[in-house]
Amino acid sequence: AASSPSSEPATKRLVTIALDPGHGGEDPGAVGRRGTREKDVVLRIARLLKRKIDQQPGMRAYLTRDGDYFVPLGRRVAKARRVKADLFVSIHADAWVSPRARGSSVYVLSERGGVRIGAADEDVAQVLLDMSTTAQIRDSLRLASFVLNQVQSINRLHKQQVEQAGFAVLKAPDIPSILVETAFISNPEEERRLRDANYQDQMAQALMKGIKAYVEKNPPLAKSRMM
Questions:
Q1: pLDDT tens by residue, 55-85
Q2: pLDDT tens digits along 109-141
Q3: Which end of the chain is more exposed for a tag (fewer CB within 10 A), N or C?
């Protein structure tokens, strides 16, 4: 039975998730032995993920690119900000020199991956940045662990824990952000899986479940904004 409106929390609002399919256009990303291009695979997974998120009550997704074109890294984050995204999820496919490297990974910003926010008083700026970045990394780690937990049900993990790096797309100090390496496109077996529509759907489903679990445990507060 539907719950009565009075039982719904007053602060409930739409949660917006920015999905960022890596590369695009003149930048194919990594290319597998069979010619599979990272930019194509991650766009397909992101589109599937958007459809699944949009079917969840109170959640909607936004794609930083919805076609085969290149979007500079800074503009990807700017687009997420413009739609007031609550979460930012960048989707990639890993590559390594050795074809044996395999597995999925989830990254968040490293504590040393700070951002420049050009302010006259560098000390004050750094303190403010440290505060916002620390909170962002904490929330990103939470989101990442929920997602990693789901992804390991469909693919082995490259590393057993969330990893941290200074990726540019993770540097919005006010939006919890993760980067998912869905599999190694340079590994022949994983390239075959990345090409498979069923695996793409399974990956999108795992990502959706991880995002949803995070949102349920960490519902975003009602932001003071014109609705």
A1: 999 999 999 999 999 999 989 999 999 999 9
A2: 887 655 444 444 555 555 555 666 788 889 999
A3: N
Longest distance between any two alpha carbons in the chain, whole Å: 58
Radius of gyration of the chain (CA): 18
User: What residues have CB less than 8 Å from 11, skipping those under 6 apart?
Assistant: 219, 221, 222
User: Which residue, 68, 165, 169, is CA-closest to 108?
Assistant: 165
Among the listed residues 144, 59, 151, the one whose alpha carbon sits nearest the alpha carbon of residue 110: 144
How, if at all, do strands 105-109 and 59-63 pair?
unpaired
Q: What is the DSSP string of 155-168?
A: S-BSSSS-EEE--G
Contact (Cβ atoms closer than 8 angstroms) between residue 57 and residue 35: no
Whole-angstrom distance, CA of residue 196 vs CA of residue 154: 13
